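look at this:
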Amino acid sequence: MSATSDDLSSLAGRSSSARSDTKRTNERLIDALNQWVADHGAPPERLADVAQLAGVSTATAYRHFASVDDAIQAFVLQLPIRAAELFAESGRADGDPVEAFAAWNLAWVRACEEHGELAVHLRSPQGFLERRDEGEPVINFACAQIEPLLDRLDGDTTMMLFMWNVTSDPREVLDLRRLGWGAQRIATFVTRAVLATPDV
């Protein structure tokens, strides 16, 4: 069963209210977290720091998140959701299989540029395929976007998925950005690497 964006939203943060002011405060806290990382090059150690930057009380921040790690997870979970949004906006899902996969990779790279700096703080000791097989919601959500695209290509879907994960890890995407590579060049590199995956 694949995870939906609603499933992902429930993985971090306290139960959210439908009130618009509550949603705005939640967004302010996540934006402040992003700003903190941009300013300091590392995540904050205290939720109070995020609250201060967001211009809300620490008590208010704790009504939204149980800890700073909870806030970080809420931010990072935006990455696969954002990639899916960008891919949908591209209108390329039903086109040529290689072009559709290339469009997904470009959407993923752009989402990594927006949300990837904190992704390294949610690393797991388990492998990507193991986490997929165990039904981890974030991995399932990403796989639900990618696997149908890979199924349309010529090759072993599982091995191509493995290669996609290796080459599109947000840490690696950001490393290539630091080398001066643009989003299109990174996406093309990922696409070519996956298409060259040998059958086993």
Notes: DSSP finds twelve helices and no strands in the chain.
